[in-house]
Request: fold
Amino acid sequence: MKICRSTVWIMLLAVWAAGAFANASAEARPWSQRMADAAMARWPDGRFVPAGQRWAWNYELGTLLEGMDAVWTKTSDPRYFNYIKNSVDQLVSADGSIPTLRPEEHQLDNILLGRQLLLLYRVTRDPRYEKAATLLYEQLMHQPRTPSGGFWHKQRYPNQMWLDGLYMAEPFYAEYASEFHHPEAFKDITRQFVLMYEHAHNAKTGLLYHGWDESKKERWANKETGDSSQFWARGMGWYMMALVDTLPYYPQEDPGRKKLIAQLVQVASAVARYQDAQTGLWYQVLDKAGERGNYLESSAACMFVYAFAKGVRLGYLPPSYLANAKRGYEGILSHFVKTGSGDDVSLTGTVKSAGLGGKPYRDGSYAYYIGERTVTNDPKGVGAFLLASTEMESVGHARSKVSRTKSSKV
Reply:
């Protein structure tokens, strides 16, 4: 059968128009949903390890699912809730046990994913989620402490508090205390923040050092103060997110609430001072923008944007900080978000990890922090991006030009 040339052109035009419409439709969707959908396609059921590799309870999944939780709350799309549930259900047994959890390691990192247990319990009232969450609460009740009462970051890091640990533990601690009526817990939660602020805060910069060793024995610790030597951007991001995520659970009359808000106001001012004027972003080592080897880092920027925007929305921070959030978000979209073929969206420029001590030994020096590698599509970075995006979309500031490239996978 012969087909005339005009018919062929009409068919080609229709195909092109359909593709163009699909692309336009995808690009019109909010960045939070585009990134969330890409993450679900990239990491089915929340598994971001290679096939065949051991899969265990971990804080990176907790960070990713916090972002998914925010997208689900914003959209009410059941796909996001189901993703959270399926991801957690792989790691929690029918009796509420968590087979891959090692409570004896006393890792604060393991507490974070408990926030999704509390979400699932509230929605489903399945008692296994309450039982699993209670296991994590009991870990906190038996967590080793410094002489001043601060939680050790891990069993193998005695007498050490890290900024990371505040985000890993305190929002869950506060949410559990609120859900199951433990008002006495808030005094202890306040103590964790106050100890870290009093000992790790630097008066000159307004920033907090990454770690504090109360014993002052660790090699990375200052022998007079116990502090580590650098201001790590994501460490400050964890700290600011810990504040804005813990405060909503505080009783209005609790005296600790004012203390935490005062901390947030102070550190917000400091972080805003170190925001890069040209890009709206922040450097891996916050106070050394001009030094050789320092680089702009994506996960910290997402965390700061989220904390600024949420802090303003909940009335903890003055409205002026929304301008910092907007500049930061524009910088994230223009520097770190890449689109590929189809619906693929990626986040680049996330430092894979950073810590103190351990083997091989991490000395906490400037050279150490700038020497840590960055990756594309790190779950911590993607989770923080989802949190930042949902906040910024709520104030109508969610579009910017992004680079188009093939995505890289973890």
User: Anything to note?
Assistant: The chain has one domain: 32-404. The radius of gyration is 22 Å.
